[in-house]
Every structure is written in structure tokens, then in C-alpha cells.
Amino acid sequence: MLKHFIGLQWKSFFRSATFKTEIWFKILMALGALYFIVVFLGMGVGAFFLIKEMEIGDPLRVVNQFMIYYLAFDLVFRYMLQKMPVTNIKPLLYLPISKSKVVNFSLGKTVISFFNLAHAFFFIPFSIVLLVEGYPPLQVVGWHLALMAIIYCNNFINVMVNNQNVVFYVIAALFIVAGASQYYQWFDITIYTGPIFDFFYDIPWTAIIPWLILIGLYYGAFAYFKKHMYLDGGLAKKQTEAKTENLEWLDRFGNLGTFLKNDIKLIKRNKRSRSAVIAGAFFIFYGLLFFTGALEVYDGPFWKIFAGIFVTGGFLFSFGQYVPSWDSSYYPLMMSQNIKYREYLSSKWYLVIIATIISTILATFYIYFGWEAYAAVLVGGIYNIGINSYLVLWGGAYVKTPIDLTSNKKAFGDKQAFNAKTLLLTLPKLVLPIGIYAIGHFLINPMAGYIFVAVFGLLGFVFKNKVFTMIEGIYKKEKYKTLLAYKQK
Amino acid sequence: MITVHNLTKTYGENTVLNIDRLEIPKGQSFGLVGNNGAGKTTLFSLLLDLIQPSSGHIINKDVQVDQSEDWKPFTSAFIDETFLIGYLTPEEYFYFIGELRGRNKADVDALLSNFEDFFHDEILGQKKYLRDLSKGNQKKVGIVASFIGNPEVVILDEPFANLDPTTQIRLKGIIKDLAAKDGVTVLVSSHDLIHVTEVCERIVVLNKGEIVKDIHTSAETMKELEAFFAG
Lengths: 489, 231
Hints:
The complex is a heterodimer. Chain A is an all-alpha fold. Chain A contains 20 helices and no strands. Helices cover 70% and strands 0% of the residues of chain A. Chain A is globular, with a radius of gyration of 26 Å. Chain B has a domain at 2-83 and 152-230: 3-Layer(aba) Sandwich (Rossmann fold). Chains A and B meet through helix 10, helix 15 and helix 20 of A and strand 6 and helix 2 of B.
């Protein structure tokens, strides 16, 4: 039986549409995975010595103190990215396989997920360093096993709370509050949680407690899934109550308003687009890394422009990048309805522009970090509106991966972001403005650099019609290929 | 209204459609039948410029469809669920199509009121998004949406499939009414010979991409078709 399951799994992995991508994308993905492994490894090996050097106490105790945040982040990441094991169960339901076996296999599959294994790259080297540094082996092993169990507890907690948005947001909010109050020294949650993890070290046999909890959680998840393995139960698609919205205030924009209305509904009502926009909103705070001098590597003058582009371009990069894939599930309708390509494109363009203007206004608080920071944000906004808004639409013509709006999975690490042509187009999006700025910065002064970038952005605005005609032509040329690609889900 | 000239569509070695000449006069109700893979959907997709012909072209009211977009204002279609926007409610979808075709809400509501029977209280005011409707109900929405804005050409691919018997009968009535209107050309494809012979004045049989029969519907049509498909 297990042989069959593994065989099915194998085929579903190697025959999936995403797997058959360009070879160099696979290389990129492997590099990405490698990067994370190296980061975790580096953390595992380096954390001990780093903490020691900072002289804030016994490294293990310090790690234990902040462990709660580590675990909280882990949970949040899992919630957002980890795939649920229920997929592909449907065809097995009526076959002569006991339900327990199916559930056991599905849950067992999550054990070897990357989200669990990645932690090994931190904990194993960290424990080894502890041993090498002369910590008592028995105690280190106890601690190690306890945390391993806790990581797996997270795994099954995630399985159970999945799709329970309320639970997730409450937990996330609690941790944000805890983190903020710790930062401002109102209340320190780690005083209470740190000792728990110390406990596993001080009295190693207590490591059995998290393992017992883990077994409990496994059976909880098992019972939950088994009970809900019906088409109208856990396997049913969630239906939300729909309400008709008019958004009549957009009617004054004519045909453009029609599309904008649709796009607003698209963003509001679909999980995938909603998360893209939320992710985009976080970009506004990205600049804090640069302007507060939090990271030394970001102190160079060009990085300010880089930050400006990102701060104001969150929506542009997270949503605009994937035009027209957002409409992939009904692209044939769009192509045969009474719609001119130009109207369709300009509605997307306006959406990006409006969002960029809003981000630029919201980012006004950067003025707190001095005029230069604010100038960088402002010219970044102008450049995004004048040049990058075209570039994302242009790149979109080559993006041919359909987006499944109702699912959040694959939201990150989607191959569409790594299409050769779109990748090439990111160069002018980021490198060009930095280059322009550098010319002004070195020839005259920083002010001139900013003015140069702004002028460049404004020039783009002037040529709108010309650029649009060109982009429209490319979209028309790519139309049939795009339609074909969207058909293959 | 519609003229097909030397139209072929090939994928690699495989010719899926090959029509020398086909003329569909204005106002005709035109039925397309054929087995799976006969080329029905390919022909309709070519009519809507969703795929490119390998050779030849289609003229829809003086507009060559793969050259200009000007056929769009007077042509509408429902091919499959990719013509529906899943995250809209049926009402929003109808209004959206209405706005694209220059019809305001009142116009759309007036049109929808004619289809109350057809909807059978399962479409409007259901507080459901289109993606959550059953296949049959989705189809009803798509079909009715294709009537919005008085199109001169209406293309329906397999409109009877997935519908319950009552709805099938009502749909036949609707299509007959539509075809009886002055100047509306209706193109319907179906696997169901009885339905097409009832609804269409003219029936064309496709087999492996070629026209093998072109019949003006009469009392004997059904027999003729059955004889053909029985092989």
C-alpha cells in the first residue's frame, strides 16, 4: 500500500506542470534552497560565538530566551506557505483503502517537508557546537530532542489550524504585541518562556514532555482529518457568503471604471491577490533598513534610490508584475468581449499608478529621516510612475503562468517571476535609476542625482501614448501564446 | 454574415480543421454537430480569434477576425467556464458585461427579467460567487450573459450539456426566440442531435475537421443524422 502511495507522490511531483520548467529556473530554485541551507547552517554554527562575543550571557540561555519568537515566526511562515496534506485525497476516498491509512500517509508526508528539515540545519550544528564547547552531552541531547519535538508540534498545529484565519490572526497579533512591548520594554514575555526551554536543558529527561505533546497533537490531527474526510466536510471548498457591491463612485471613469471595479473586487475577494497586495504594503517599511542605518551594507548613496523605488513600488512589484496573469482564469472572455486591448491595459496602468501614489503619500513619514531620505522616496515614486509602470506591463506580456486565485500556495517562488525576459526587464526597473542617480551624484551633487531621476520619470510620462502603442503591439503578438498557456493549468 | 475561406488549423502533422468554404447568412440559426475531436470548438475559437488559423481566414460582417477587433461589439459567445469571472456574483457579472456592451443596469435588469423561468431562482440574489455555483447554473449565467447588448452573432458551444431536462427545454425555447428575431445569427454546437434539429434551420456535420454534411433542417433530418452517426 505504502508503495502505491509513494509511487503516486513521486509521479505527482515529477509530472506537475511547474516541475517542467526551464532548466535554469530549476538551477535558480536549487540555489535558493541552498542559500537558505547556508544561512541556517551559518546561524547554527555562528550563533554561539556571536552571542558569546556580544557578552549578553550564556549563548544557550540567550537562544532559549528568544526561542519563543523563533517558534512563532516558524508558525507564521508555515501558515502562509506550507502546503496542506489534504490535496489529492479525493480520488482515493472510494477505493478499497482504509481511511486511517490515507490520513496516516498524508500526515506522515508533512514530516519530511522542507519546513521541518530546514530547522535541522540550525539545530544540529548549534548542538554540535555546544558539545564541542564542553556542554554536558546528556543535557544538550535532551534539549535538542525537546526542541525537535516542539518544531514538529508546530507542524501539526499548523495542519490543524490551517484555513482558520481567525486563529492565525489572533496568534500573529499576540506575538506582534509581545514583540513590540519587549522592544519598548513594557513587558518581556521571554522572562516567562525562556525558563521553559532552559528546563529541557537543566533536566534532560523532561524532553519527554514535548514528545508526549507531539504524539497527542498527531492523534489530534489524525482524528480531525479522519472525521472530516468527506466531500462536504474538510474536503469541501470553502464558500464565503457573497455580497454584491456596486462601487458606483467609479462609474464616472467610464470604461476604465468598469475595469477598476473589477480589479478592486479581484483584490478583495481572492486569497492570492489579497496576500500579494498585503505583501506589497509591507514594502513601505523596507526603507527603514536603509535610512535608519540598521544595516551597514546599505549605507552607500545609491542604496537610497534603491530603497525609494521599493518603498513606493510595493504594489507595482507584487501585483503589477503579474498582470495579466490575474485575469488568467477568464482570459478568453476578456479577449472576445467588447474590450479594446488599450483600455484593458490602461486600466491596469491606472491601478498601478494610483497604488504608487498612495504608497508615496503613506511613505511621507520618511521625512523624519531627513530631506535626503524623503527625496529618495519621492523620486522613487516618480520613477515608478513614469518608467516602471510601463516596464511591469511590458514584462507582463511575457508572463504566461496562470494564477490560481483561490489558492495561496506557490505565491512565493513562482516560476513566473523568473522568466528570462521578465528578469531582464528588472534591470531597468532597479539598476537604471541607480545609474542615473550615480551620474548626477558624482558629476554634480546628490541633489542633482535626485533631480536627474525625477526628470527621467517625468519624461516617461510624456511619452505615454507612444509607449502604450508599443506595449499593445506586444500584447497582441503574444495573445495566442498567452491564451494557450493559460489553458494549461 | 459569416464567411469562412480556406480555413485550416494544424498542430504539427495533425490537421484538426479544414474548411474550404462556409457561408452563414445573416439571421440563420446554425447548428454544428460532430463527434469528439471533430473540430467544433476549434471552429468557434477561430471565430472568436482565440486561436490563429494555420491558413485562410474568417470574415464576420466585413471584418477579418484575425486582423481587426471590430467584430467584438456585435459578437458574443459562451464557450466554457473560462468566460466567467469566478469571484463575481452573477449580478455583478451581468452588469460587468452590460457595461462593456454599453448597457446600463436598468437595461440589464430588463433583459434578465425575461429569464426568470430559466434561472429557476437559483441564480439571482443567491449570495454566492460564480465559482461556487454548480456547473449547470454557471452555464445558465454564461448563456444569458451572451445575450446582453443585442449582439448580432451569438456563439454557444455545447449549451445543452450539463443542464437539467427542464432547463434544456427552456433553453430550446430561448434559442428559437433569439433566432426568430430579425438579423440575429445563432451558432450552436451540440452532441445532442434531437436538440439541434429542433432548434436550428441548418445543420452542418463536421468529421475529423471537414464538413461532411450540410443539411437544411426538415422532417427527415433526424433520420439522416442518425444514419450518419450510426456509421
